[in-house]
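Render Replication initiator protein RepSA in 3D.
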Amino acid sequence: MTATPPPRHKLSPALRDLLALGRHDGDLDRVRNQVERVRGCTRPVQLTGYSATLDAETGEPLHVFTTLDEPTGRLLIPCGNRRASRCPSCSRLYAADTFHLIRAGLTGGKGTTEAVRSHPRVFATLTAPSFGPVHNRPATPSGRRLPCRCGSHHREDDPALGTPVHPPTYDYAGAVLWNAHASALWARFTTYLRRELAALLGLTQKELRTVLRVSFAKVAEYQKRGLVHFHAVIRLDGPDGSGTHPPAGATADVLTCALRRARERVSLILDSDVLGPRELCWGEQLDVREIAAFAAGSDLTDEAVAAYIAKYATKGAEDAGALDAPLTCGSCKGTGDRHGTGCAHCDGTGYHQDPARLPLAQHARQMVRTAWDLGALTELAHLKLRKWAHMLGFRGHFSTKSRRYSTTLGALRDTRRAWRADQSRARLGLADRDESTLVLESAWTFHGTGYTPGERLLAETVRQQQALALQLKHEGAEGR
């Protein structure tokens, strides 16, 4: 006896969508293949159009793909978002690229010579200054835990960690402004670093450029108190980059000394009629450690440093309890005004979500509010703080590198794109054809973003499978 299918109104939209696709042979498999190809991307881009591979001499079409033949009538491509909170699958790929970029600058490869292993290299962490005492877990040099300023011994997972001991006196404006100028402080730091190196080596700055080059790669990380700090790999090269050695006197100890001197010299004066003059500088905490050679038995090896930096390249302010999306209204760009009249979309507030109603901890909410309020000041308009309020004022790139540190993310993507093109030609039986004898013709139109309910269910399954595979991989590595 055939079972009676459940009434239509009792099926979820996702199941109805999948059942509709399953009525035709192969349709569900083709949809699943598209979702797997974008690795379960959280919000893929939808395109419509075609792509044709033609014979360069005759113009004969050797293969044609058109979205008209697809069950859903469009093609899905990954969103490419680097944030783990927005798209786990795309951020995982970004982290992998960052890992290879950093590692290439430490061990060679990807166009960088292996000689960099013998160059002076350090891993440095620069922090923000204090804007008021916060709850923490202090300890003695021997590791014995001391009470916090509030008198308590906080647990490692205590949500109070990083929040002000006395919020009314905490300098929220200073904290937001420091975040907003953190990238400028880094730029000044690299300038002073070169000056200090020249002084320590007994050279003029012009002479230094002829014998030495400073290469670096850094990533920003949010502390629990909502302020960014920078982790950086800093390397000394010869004048032509990684392929040449620095002078004999340019050692890791000299680099460390120059780093400490440069940190002390960097400052930025901010003149403000409303807030008064402020001096922005680095915090007192500066951690500098020499990077050991690959597999040298140290916990600070090339591989460990690359993995550490890649981990934070996909993080954002959400790790400090803030937001991962802008607050500004899309219509008025946060001004609350359109064409001389109040914005109807946000009722003149400038934001599409009221910060007071967002699920934020009090400290993060106050940082967001402060950034938003400072963004209304004409003298600070150039900082665009309302646009970056969700980032607690920080408006720089999370991961950056000097020009000749190693390869680039673009080069890594180009290599992956070329590999996929080779795989595609092999599937089409065109692997033996010279690329110069083929012409690719295509036309694509943006259709939208996201999934249908059925695709969303398939994407969740793909992401779960990826997470399980990653977990098993890590467990296998730990067991070896």
